[in-house]
Amino acid sequence: MIEIENLIKVYRRGEIEVIAIRDVSLKIDDGEMVMLVGPSGSGKTTFLHLLGGIDRPTAGKILVNGRNVAMMGDKDLTDYRRKEVGMVFQFFNLVPTLNALENVMLPMQFAGTPKKEQRERAMELLEMVGMDHRAKHYPDEMSGGEQQRVAIAVALANDPGIILADEPTGELDTETGLKIIKLFKRLNEEGKTVIIATHDMRLLNYASRVLKIEDGKINEA
């Protein structure tokens, strides 16, 4: 379970303060598929980065299975990012000098997984997302949809319970975007908690819950 209490994130730019997240409190149960909708600049990406331990809040709590992510030290936070959450970025964030297989193996290398297991699991994940035939290809040899599927495999490498996705269909054509969201739905049906920030209203049909964010405030849609 994710429990968020009085979450605030303020960015300071010189003497100017920008409040990205404003006193948000909510709960997300295990196994939910949540869509977070809102205009550009409303705080969607910031919220995901806080949940994923990429950024730290200014105030408030982020309790994941009872542990406060906001108060974790650097080592615990690194372990949390490696093992408990998988982040799918809008612009894929694949390492350009590594092929698809090597990109998926990379998180497992950091987690200390034996090399043979890394390769076997990476190939299983690439097959799951329909990219096993592109295992030896580099990111610049793939389409946007192919890169996104590899990015999902990367996020799943260490079998996290929570998947966070930032505009995963934003750069994709309609048909490819539909394949991607069906893949997320499949992962959710297998027990993953999935939280997706999106502008794509088609995705709402697949959600168990829709949250709306505007000016850093989150409410039920």
Tally of discrete structural domains: 1
**Widest beta sheet: strand line-up:** 6-7-8-3-9-10
Averaged pLDDT: 91
- Assign an overall shape: globular
What does this structure look like?
By secondary structure, this protein is α/β, with parallel strands linked by helices. The protein has a single domain (31-57, 67-220), classed as 3-Layer(aba) Sandwich (Rossmann fold), CATH 3.40.50.300. Helices cover 33% and strands 29% of the residues. It has six helices and ten strands. Strands 6-7-8-3-9-10 form a six-stranded mixed sheet, sandwiched between helices. The protein has a four-stranded antiparallel sheet with strand order 2-1-4-5, covered by helices on one side. The chain is globular and about 45 Å long. The protein starts with a strand and ends with a strand. 41% of the residues are buried.
Looking at this protein, list some descriptive labels.
221 residues; alpha/beta; Rossmann fold; 6-stranded mixed beta sheet; 4-stranded antiparallel beta sheet; 10 strands; 29% strand
In short:
The chain is of the alpha/beta class. The chain has helices at residues 44-51, 74-83, 100-111, 115-128, 144-155, 174-189; strands at residues 2-13, 16-28, 33-37, 59-64, 67-68, 85-88, 162-166, 193-198, 209-214, 217-220.
